[in-house]
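sorry to bug you again but im stuck and you know this stuff better than me. what follows is a protein written twice so to speak, once as letters and once as structure tokens for the fold. mainly i need to know what kind of three dimensional shape the backbone takes. anything you notice is useful, everything is just below:
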Amino acid sequence: MDTIQKAKQNWTKIVRKYMQPHLGKSYYQIANSLIPYLISWVVAYYAYQYSVVLCLMVALVAQVFLLRIFIIMHDCGHGSFFKSKKKNDFWGFLCGVLSFSPYLQWSRAHKYHHKHSGNLDYRGIGDVDVLTVEEYEKLTPFKKLKYKLIRSPFVFITLGAFYVFIFQHRFTAKDGDFREKMGVYLTNLCILASGLIISYFFSFGFYIIYQLAVVVFSAMSGIFLFYVQHQYENVYWQRSDKWDHLEASLKGSSYFKLPKIFQWASGNIGFHHIHHLCSSIPNYNLEKAYKENPLFQEEAMELGLRDSIKCLFLHLYDMKERKMISFSEYRRRQRLNPTRI
């Protein structure tokens, strides 16, 4: 039995040693994300006195820290950032308020995504809509147009970011429990209260411009990262009877190899295959897990920045060839052999 096959059989033992959160590292990550983000508000206000454009430029930089704050919320939702559930819930809620995300409600949907990622029979919650070629063929012209719009990079990265984080997150889910719904209401109340306080001491115009800009810029970055890590050409998709957690994690979630500065800005989320294999690993332990284990290196579906751009233009899953294809490739196949699709 080769080393990789043996590692696959013992992956639960491999990940166990990386699962313990470190209190100092967790608080250090909170400090180097939260403090610069709060300082950015002061810098942005002075920039706003000179021009709105300068204020927006500050928002472009500050969205990096808000993205890291969102990643902290994400880890808290998995219960991986602190040993204490109370600490996870406290910081998760606070980071959720700052990133305009209802902590409990978002976390539940995200856990569903983790549980069923790569499973064709469980789509539509906490993920991006993906249709197979056969499913797309059966749609009405109107629904085809709707799907094309949803899969358009401009729509899901820009309009999608605004819709989800500014609008959708303000409402409770129909199947949410009492705690989730109260969490949404309390998040909205805290956002409103902070908006009123900032508007009182600074100005309402500044608050609206800077708050919308920094949240939407950060959301755009987050959606892009999430999208390309599950939408590459040879991504893993299977029906329930053939679905396997290990394969879905290593083949259905990419290793997005980023330059160090981008890796830091995105909270190591590029090691997505390891995160999906074991969501109990704090983000600051993911790189170590990757470097120390050949399994995570050799089995990873590695993507670079150039590859990630190509991922934006893959739209349908071809069950026959087991890969994602673009709308243009779909149309090309139709022209060559209409009966094949």
Summary: The mean pLDDT is 93.
